[in-house]
Amino acid sequence: MSRVLVTGGTGFLGTSVVAGLAASDAIECVVSADIRAPSPGVRLPGVLYERVDVTDAPDLPELLRRHEIDTVVHLASIVNPGKSTTVTQEFAVDVEGSRAVFDACVAAGVSRVVVSSSGAAYGYHPNNAEWIVESDPIRGNDDFPYSRHKRMVEEMLAELRETAPQLTQTVFRIGTILGPAVDNQITALWETRRVLKLAGSDSPFVFVWVDDVVEVMVRAASGGPAGIFNVAGNGKMTVAEIASALGKKMFVIPPWLFTVALGIGHALKLTPHKPAQVNFLLYRPVLDNTALKNTFGFTPSKTSREAFAAYLEARALR
């Protein structure tokens, strides 16, 4: 029976993971830790809620000891920065916060950490493999903070595998998560009258349904295999296929022109996105999920196409 603490427990993914852990017979105790307190309607019976800021939590080791935590599910991260969010703030949460959590795990004698990494850790590069596997290099992008930070966290974890081997790791490199209530910078790409397409790129996406992400997190927290695993549904969808599913036409624009537009928009504080993030659409990492199925032992319930169809259905109901 595992005793689990979840960082980022009141976020989009955290809320679902906490609920999944609380419903599992293999979990004895669930502690949801986040900088924000959940609203009364979100609180679940039997779940303990703690206010924790991962960027300033000197008492985190004692909190872990007090609840006798043996497994930490680390989700806290700034995935969708706002217009006023600075790179310094993102680094403080994504990198320094992760270091504080891992250090606390080692200090408190936690036996396992489950980490939500991202396909972004591979980076957005023109020479990415057509299908990326876990043994491919983690390159990130120095000019794309989220991608750079995910790479840095994984480098930190690699170092810990040498210096603290007693802390077992399960690291999930997750594709684009879709769910009934998802609303982020990616789904915003599909809300315009026409779907943006950069000339010369198919911009393929791999999708995974949120319930599948929750299930792998629960399995990992309750004794599932250690290791590094891509998490995505089978298959991929190009921008043209996404536009067709949406019943919309595409707006095709040269990458250089989109770079200029982002530069102007960012300078005028109309968008948090910078010109360097053009690569986010040009060279998307397409995740191979073979290890997830064959080694971790989990096959996602929905393919990329099925996850997108379910998202569209939920969106229509909203």
TrEMBL record:
InterPro entries: Epimerase_deHydtase, Lipid_A_modif_metabolic_enz, NAD(P)-bd_dom_sf. Residues 4-232 form the NAD-dependent epimerase/dehydratase domain. It holds the Pfam family Epimerase. PANTHER family: BIFUNCTIONAL POLYMYXIN RESISTANCE PROTEIN ARNA, NAD-DEPENDENT EPIMERASE_DEHYDRATASE. This is UDP-glucose 4-epimerase. The lineage of its organism: Bacteria, Bacillati, Actinomycetota, Actinomycetes, Micrococcales.
